[in-house]
Structures are given as C-alpha cells and as structure tokens.
Design goal:
The complex is a heterodimer of chains A (99) and B (273).
Chain A (H helix, E strand, L loop, with lengths): L8 H11 L14 E4 L9 H5 L5 E3 L5 E3 L10 H5 L5 E4 L8
Antiparallel strand pairs in A: 1-4, 2-3
Chain B lengths: L3 H8 L15 H16 L6 E5 L14 E4 L5 H11 L4 E7 H7 L1 H10 L4 E6 L34 H8 L3 E6 L3 H13 L4 E6 L6 H5 L4 H11 E3 H4 L11 E8 L5 H12 L1
Parallel strand pairs in B: 1-2, 1-3, 3-4, 4-6, 5-6, 7-8
Antiparallel strand pairs in B: 5-8
Helix pairs in contact in B: 2-7, 4-5, 5-6
The chains are: A alpha+beta (99), B alpha/beta (273).
Chain lengths: 99, 273
C-alpha cells in the first residue's frame, strides 16, 4: 500500500489495530467493548452521539464525540455503521455476551 | 461483518485525501460504508468490480474506492457502464448517480437501461436537491419547497424514481434510507446478486442545502426525520395515498425474473449461427 499524501489511513488503521489487542487472563473481566474515535477524520456531525441506543457517547467541549459511559456499550456498532466518515469503531470484547 | 479499520485498509484508496470532501453528516459517506460492506460480504474480487459515476456530489464516490473506477460526464454514467458491460461481461458493473444525474440529465439513459435489462447495479443517491451547485430544485424536490431556483416554492411535482424504473422494466428495485443502515447493506447486497438491471434508491440527507431549505438544519434532525417517516413496503400496501404523503416507502419494491440483455443476445447468436 502506498503512503503518499497525508491521508491518515495508515495512521487510523494503526491506531485501531493497536486497540484490538485485548488483555487476557485476569484482566478479562474488566474488559469492555471499546469505542475508538479517530478525530483526524471526524467532522463533528453528531450522528453517533444522537443515535447511540445506550447513551455511551456525549459531545465534548471541543465538539468531538466523547466516550462518557463506556460500561453501557453493548457493542451494537450502530455508531460505526452510521458514521459517514469512518471515524468511529467499536472494538468488541469477545468475552462478554451482552450484545 | 468486518470492522471498519479492516474495510478501509482494504478498499479505500490511501492516495486520496481523507477525510473525504462531503459535508459533515452527508448521507453519501454512510452509503460509501454500506457499499463497501455489501461488496465485502458478497465476496467479490476487487478486480471484478467496475464502479462508474456521473457528476455531482455522488460522482466523487468511486474516487475513494480501490476498484476499477470511472468518473464520467453528467448523466452519462449508464451509457459508459453499458459499453463496459458489453465489452467485458464478466465485470460486476455498479453505477452510482445522484437524483439529478439519474432522473434529469440522464433520465433517458436510466429508463432505457431498465428497459434493456442490462446486467448493471445502479445506486441512486436521492437527496431531493442539486447539492453540489447550491441547492437548486431537482426532479425529486418536493412540491412547494422553496429552493435556490424556486424561492417562492417549487411548482413541479417530484418523480418517484423507484416507480419510474419499475415501470421501465427493472427486475430489482429497492429503496432504503441511510438511517436504516443495516437494511441498506442488505438491499445493496441483494441488488449486486441480482441478474439484470437492479436499482437501489438511497434516501440520503443533503444537510447543507436540503436541510437549510426545509429548516431541518442538522444531520441529526434529518436522520431523525428519516427514522420517523420511513414506512416498510409491506405496511405501505395497507395505507392510503393520503397517509403515504411525505413518507418514504422502504424495502424491496420489485424482485422479478426476466432474461437479461446478454442472455437474449446469446440466444439470438445461437439461433442465427
């Protein structure tokens, strides 16, 4: 894959792939579904905040979405599916069964 | 379903600048995601997909995707796509057009492609306005709406694009909104699998212009409007015309079987030989 231009694709995927490394063993019970926001691509449209069924996200002071209530995330991925800018991803914890 | 980082790494062109050009909350961005997911689910090779677009905001869509892509002149995406399909029948040809591109500038190409039943999947992004040029009334703008070109209210009645292509002979017609994203993924997947001329009409909010003209303004308001006003096709059959005013009928509207242009051509070829 070529890397010319300040595209952010490589940056985004590197960040998001980094987040997929889930802690195992005793840490497992603490692990929740994680919502990652890539601010480089986010345009602050507010769709993810408005349509999250569990109120996981709120709008921060800077206008970007903020993960305020991470424990409530069920991993439904509606924020990820409706984001027009590919700027949010839910890293689902495979060990929880609350989807 | 693959996760977004995997999909963007695989299908988006890294040499193009991101974030993309569309306005905050634009429905075309959501459609882009749905299209990528549907193609990924269908298991198509990137080399076998041919994506063609015309002019307008939606014309920008193939630019970001790492398939065989072609950005053509206004309204003529289907003519280019027809040529490609005839020359390279093994390609899965997908056309993305806006409502003005498809039903006004390229209106004749649309109905005749449907009549011909050529094996092309057409995605029509219907934002009910000419977005790129500044919010002029398009053939799908609702009656009475004040726009940049109709400041005292639009005097013409809108096209129902799905009914138009159904009447013209399309074998698969579906309508969805970008709010109902999972349904949108599903109908695009079905349209891709269908042999013949398949059409998916995608209701996508133009936040900057349609939102301003209707006073809805924010992307969230417009998505909420879609949520409140979408009626599934099965339910709509039991509703009166008055009840269905200003509603969006969603779902698979037509799914019939008919020999494609290629099949008929092959038959003639055999018979004449």
């Amino acid at each position: 894959m070529d890397d010319h231009g300040s595209t952010g694709i490589l940056l985004w995927t590197r960040e998001a792939h980094g987040a997929t490394i889930l802690p195992g063993g005793s840490d497992r019970n603490c692990q929740m579904n994680r919502v990652e926001i890539f601010k480089g691509w986010c345009k602050k449209c507010g769709i993810c905040v408005a349509f999250c069924p569990r109120g996981v996200l709120t709008t921060g002071d800077d206008g970007f979405p903020k993960v305020s209530n991470p424990d409530a995330c069920t991993g439904c991925r509606w924020c990820e599916l409706r984001c027009p800018d590919f700027a949010i991803v839910v890293q689902k914890d495979e060990h929880t069964d609350n989807a | 379903m693959k996760q977004t980082p995997q999909l963007i790494h695989r299908y988006l062109r890294s040499s193009k600048r991101f974030p993309h050009v569309w306005c905050p909350g634009c429905g075309i961005g959501i459609l882009l995601g749905a299209l990528v997911r549907a193609i990924d689910e269908g298991g198509y090779s990137k080399d076998d997909i041919m994506l063609v677009s015309g002019i307008g905001c939606s014309g920008r869509l193939p630019v970001y995707l790492d398939f065989n892509t072609l950005h053509t002149t206004h309204g003529r995406a289907l003519t280019f796509a027809t040529g490609i399909k005839l020359a390279k029948p093994h390609l899965k040809v997908i056309v993305v057009m806006g409502d003005g591109d498809a039903s006004s500038i390229g209106g004749n190409h649309l109905i005749h492609s449907a009549r011909r039943n050529i094996d092309i999947t057409t995605i029509i992004v219907n934002n009910q306005i000419y977005g790129m040029t500044g919010g002029q009334a398009s053939p799908t703008t609702p009656f009475g709406l004040a726009t940049a070109s109709s400041p005292y209210g639009h005097l013409e009645h809108p096209f129902d694009i799905s009914k138009l292509v159904e009447a013209a002979g399309a074998v698969f017609v579906a309508r969805s909104t970008v709010y109902h994203t999972k349904a949108l993924d599903r109908v695009i997947g079905q349209a891709l699998k269908k042999k013949g001329f398949s059409v998916v009409e995608v209701m996508a909010p133009c936040v900057t212009h349609f939102g301003k003209m209707t006073g809805m303004g924010s992307p969230v308001d417009m998505m909420r409007w879609q949520k409140d006003n979408a009626v599934p096709f099965e339910k709509a059959r039991e509703m009166s015309a008055e009840e269905l005013q200003n509603k969006i009928v969603t779902g698979v509207l037509v799914d019939i079987g008919k020999p494609t242009f290629h099949e008929e051509h092959a038959r003639i070829w055999r018979e004449v030989k």
